[in-house]
Design brief:
Radius of gyration: 16 Å
Number of helices: 6
Shape: globular
Oligomer: single chain
Order of helices and strands: HHHHHH
Helix content: 55-70%
Number of strands: 0
Largest sheet: none
Structural class: mainly alpha
Distance between the termini: 38 Å
Length: 153
């Protein structure tokens, strides 16, 4: 299990669409530098919404179970982006940083009207569906072909 700093938790919640730019004071949104306690209203709402979405105990605390689920979700996003786009986001860095933002934007160019680098639930579901449909059709699919399809949409 990774021990996330408070700014990293906020960044991940921002990157997953649980906190919006409107209720964030992060000038480099979705990246946060805010190390304050995770007790402000917008962060508490975001943590609880994440916990609800992933069937966790809803207590607003990023304990072991929530932290593990955050790490697993980020790893899943990275695996799907690596597969779909041929990027190489390291699995040992389960974090939502500029590399992830750029890769999500690249994905969004082919599938959504919004190119904001936020892997909202809708974006994550689309990535999951495309990845798993492609794997079911051809386990040896070439990620370059998928990238070309993304660029032409």
């Amino acid at each position: 299990m990774i021990s996330y700093k408070n700014s990293e938790i906020r960044t991940i919640l921002n990157g997953l669409g649980y906190r919006s730019r409107i209720n964030s004071n992060d000038p480099n949104f979705p990246i946060s530098q805010d190390e304050s306690d995770l007790t402000d209203e917008s962060t508490q709402k975001a943590i609880k919404k994440f916990q609800v979405d992933y069937d966790l105990i809803v207590d607003g605390i990023v304990g072991t179970e929530t932290s593990n689920k955050i790490e697993a979700e980020i790893n899943s996003i990275h695996e799907e982006l690596n597969y779909l786009l041929g990027v190489n986001i390291s699995p040992i860095l389960p974090f939502y940083g500029q590399i992830t933002i750029n890769a999500v934007q690249q994905f969004q160019r082919g599938y959504t009207n919004s190119i904001d680098g936020i892997a909202s639930l809708t974006v994550r579901e689309e990535m999951y569906t495309i990845t798993h449909n492609n794997l079911a059709q051809s386990p040896q699919i070439n990620h370059i072909a998928v990238s070309q399809v993304l660029q032409h949409n």
